[in-house]
């Protein structure tokens, strides 16, 4: 029995995807953020994301920001509608929702999902060299939830974005 | 000024990604789920995901399930370690965390992030034909948070996974 066969035999699993799901893409994850400038700084400067689209809903007083982490920015179409169609066809897009004004309320904070009531846990960035990446985060003053040396799992770290959302850091390959 | 230049000029944005972020990939989003069989049914049968990896932590009484939505399952390496390295290099992976036993507690529920305290909002699946996809979800009895016909935004829908997490459904291209 292959590894895939074993996983496909788990309770609940449909082993052969329905033809009707052809072309489905896990496109994005949406997080609300308190101060969009702080969040754009973190995701573009610290993690290397690119902002691909901004949509403003002035009447409802919120804006949406769509970010991607791509190897080559020239892959992003320059103009709409090709740009938006490309964006919504990609896996791994991050959508940030900013409700206008929250950044000016000192007592305002979003919930990171890791204390009660729990639910969402984290997002994860995979990196070519987890030790180098974590050393750079330290140098940049990024707060850590878990350093590589903390706890039992020595191959993963968690940093925190400006709202306190956990961002797991790992490398796909064995550490040298 | 190009559209990208305008976005790169937003407060907080670093326009040129640091070379140190080369190879960074937005790999996955983690959600806790109460009943893993129900969740695997939803994500594999309704949305066409494939389970690529399961990790059990018996002492701490939880298991992790990694799922991808791919066009061609033959792209997934059959065996470890290639399989795990491939998985952790992909964008758009979904990680489900199951704390053992929660499925047997009638009062247990996770928080979807969309009532207080808010934070995480939703994940999104893009589909080739949003009307056909929504008609199929209706036929399958999937609960909706927002049908295409609800509210002002007629081009997007939200369905709910077994824990009540919102899953946005949209199509990248104009509707015919």
From TrEMBL, chains A, B:
Binds 1 nickel ion per subunit. Its cofactor is Zn(2+); Ni(2+). The keyword Lyase applies. Pfam families: Glyoxalase. Keywords: Lyase, Metal-binding, Nickel, Zinc. It is an enzyme of class 4 (lyase). Its EC number is 4.4.1.5. InterPro entries: Glyas_Bleomycin-R_OHBP_Dase (IPR029068), Glyas_Fos-R_dOase_dom (IPR004360), Glyoxalase_1 (IPR004361), Glyoxalase_1_CS (IPR018146), VOC_core (IPR037523). The keyword Magnesium does not apply. Pathway: Secondary metabolite metabolism; methylglyoxal degradation; (R)-lactate from methylglyoxal: step 1/2. GO terms for molecular function: lactoylglutathione lyase activity. It catalyses: (R)-S-lactoylglutathione = methylglyoxal + glutathione. SUPFAM superfamilies: Glyoxalase/Bleomycin resistance protein/Dihydroxybiphenyl dioxygenase. Residues 25-172 form the VOC domain. PANTHER family: LACTOYLGLUTATHIONE LYASE, LACTOYLGLUTATHIONE LYASE GLYOXALASE I. Belongs to the glyoxalase I family. Catalyzes the conversion of hemimercaptal, formed from methylglyoxal and glutathione, to S-lactoylglutathione. This is Lactoylglutathione lyase. It comes from Novilysobacter selenitireducens.
């Amino acid at each position: 029995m292959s590894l895939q066969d074993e996983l496909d035999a788990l309770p609940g699993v449909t082993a052969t995807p329905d033809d009707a799901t052809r072309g489905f893409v896990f496109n994005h994850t949406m997080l609300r953020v308190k101060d969009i400038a702080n969040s754009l700084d973190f995701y573009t400067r610290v993690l290397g994301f690119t902002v691909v689209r901004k949509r403003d809903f002035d009447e409802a007083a919120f804006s949406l920001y769509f970010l991607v982490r791509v190897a080559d920015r020239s892959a992003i179409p320059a103009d709409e509608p090709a740009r938006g169609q490309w964006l919504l066809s990609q896996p791994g897009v991050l959508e940030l929702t900013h409700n206008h004004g929250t950044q000016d309320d000192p007592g305002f904070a979003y919930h990171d999902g890791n204390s009660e009531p729990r639910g969402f846990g984290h997002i994860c960035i995979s990196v070519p060299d987890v030790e180098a990446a974590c050393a750079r985060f330290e140098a940049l003053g990024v707060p850590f939830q878990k350093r590589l040396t903390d706890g039992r799992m020595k191959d993963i770290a968690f940093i925190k974005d400006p709202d306190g959302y956990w961002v797991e850091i790992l490398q796909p390959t064995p550490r040298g």
